[in-house]
Design brief:
30% of the residues lie in helices and 50% in strands. The chain is of the alpha+beta class. The radius of gyration is 13 Å and the shape is globular.
Length: 96
């Protein structure tokens, strides 16, 4: 099993329900592709250090997952890149 940490930022112009829906959709992408979510944190809305795609703040989410292969990670990465709701994401492979 490989361990990963994923942080993604959702654009601040969405309503609370839409932000939760985006977060749930990306969690479902991971679990439907064989990953197990160990921990999920909603870090709330925070100011960005610099402007990204003309946004000065965003909703931060942090996921710690386990996956046997890279299928879930590559699918998350692909969909996060094309989603207009996610303004930035980062995937880190944890060494344990």
């Amino acid at each position: 099993m490989k361990n990963y940490e994923i942080m993604f930022i959702v654009r601040p112009t969405l309503s609370e329900e839409e932000v939760k829906k985006v977060s749930q959709n990306f969690s479902n992408i991971l679990t439907s592709n064989g990953a197990k979510i160990n921990e999920s944190k909603d870090l709330g809305q925070k100011e960005l250090a610099y402007e990204i795609k003309k946004f000065k703040s965003g909703y931060y989410f942090l996921l710690e997952i386990e996956a046997t292969d890279d299928k879930a990670i590559s699918e998350f990465d692909r969909l996060a890149r094309i989603s207009s709701d996610v303004i930035r994401h980062l995937i880190i492979k944890l060494e344990k």
